[in-house]
Amino acid sequence: MSVTGHSDVDMESASAFSPSEPSIDGVFVSKHNQSAEIYQIFKEDVDALLSGRTPQLEQPSLIQVIVNFKLISLVPKRTVIYKETSLL
Predict the structure, then answer these.
(1) Against a cut of 0.70, is the pTM above it?
(2) How far apart are CA 11 and CA 54, in angstroms?
(3) pLDDT tens-place string over residues 31-82
(4) N or C: which end of the chain has fewer CB within 10 A?
(5) Residue 36, Cβ neighbours under 10 Å: how many?
C-alpha cells in the first residue's frame, strides 16, 4: 500500500485490451496500463511530499517508495519495447 492509502497494483490481473483489436499486443497494453496506474500513485505520493503533507521524518522513506514504484513500473514495459524493436 502506498503512503497515500492506495493499495498496491496487482501486476497479474491488469489486462485491458479489447478482443476486437487483435493487432494490439495484449502484453504491451497490460504493461502500459499497469504503469499508468503506478504513475497515478507516484503522482499522488509526489504531491503529498511536495505539498508538505508528509512529515519531514517520513520524507526519506516516501522518496524510496516513489523511486521503487517507478522502477517497478518502467522495467517490464521497457523490456517489451526492446524486444519488439530488436525484431525489426
Answers:
(1) no
(2) 27
(3) 788 878 878 888 899 999 999 999 999 999 999 988 887 777 666 666 666 6
(4) C
(5) 14
SS3 sequence of 33-73: HHHHHHHHHHHHHHHHHHHCCCCHHHHHHHHHHHHHHHHHH
- Tell me the CA end-to-end span of the chain in Å, nearest whole number: 39
Rg of the chain over Cα atoms, rounded to whole angstroms, equals 16
Q: For the chain, give every domain's residue range.
A: 26-86
- Please, what is the Cα angle at 36 between 33 and 39, to 5 degrees? 155
Q: Which of 87, 79, 64 is nearest to 28 (CA)?
A: 79
